[in-house]
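Field reference: sequence -> structure
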Amino acid sequence: MPGLVMSNDELNKLYTSTDPEDLLKFYGSFKLQEEVVAWMKARPSENMNLYEQEGNSKISVVIPTADINGKLANDSKTMFSGVYTVFVESKGPNFNFARSCNLGIAKALERNPEWVIVANDDLRKIDGLDVLSHALDGVDRNVKMVYTKHTHGIPAFNCMLVNSTNPLVGLLMRRTNAEKRANQLAKQLGVKYAAYTLDPLRQESRFEEQKMRLIATLLGYRRKFVMQGPFTILRADFARQSGGKVYDEAYINSYEDIDLFYNISKSHKDYAFITFKIGHKDSASLGKGEMNNLRAIANKIYFNYKYRKELDAVKLHGGVL
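Structure field:
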């Protein structure tokens, strides 16, 4: 159905459907990359409700959650007891992680913290918050973002930007038939680069590492950088520069963190590592699967809209094909 004119509401129904064929209709309805971007930016938001847990605001925490009274939120309340915490409750087909984060960050900044942490609601306590506070006290004032470096819990992990149009990538990623068809449509809409991560928390991490190494060896990559999405530690002064709009709100529940970490990585002076351990329940909040992969293609379209020319100009690292 290429070129069929649909309203934004009709497009949104296709995008939020649980039928892969509807997602294919969604991508097939666009002729231009700019049309996808315009739809993403105009997409409505679900209601977002703020709930505050009082505490020391030197380190303030922002937690998007679907249910303020649910188990995940209640576990988070206990885990972050003692520090000022903003919960942003929002759920529904138009839920937007970036918009929830930004709203919470703006609220947290009202307390004039030194650090703002954006945390998933599916984390597990390992180290105490006093360990975190002590570690952050030793970070240089010019650092904008901090990663945790350790052998347990949530470590920072590598992300590579690779030419995803190469057939070898599709083969190694074991795409479903719907994903293959959607990626062909995405290619027509300007997608060339996609992010592939080596997340050591995933059970298949050894297999993932082998695939990453093979892709890097055969195809090369344009950029490799560090990211740590479930527990993002931001210097409050950095967040204030954008008025709390740290994440690009056009993204829909993926790639907003990749965009942020990609830009931070451009200067080694902007980030640092500390030793602090915190666990993760592995995407208990948003889940995984074919439908999430299909919806993420819209975010790849937007990411390439923003950065494809920039990445084309970057030297290819590795690659024998």
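Note: Residues 1 and 25 are 6 Å apart (CA to CA).
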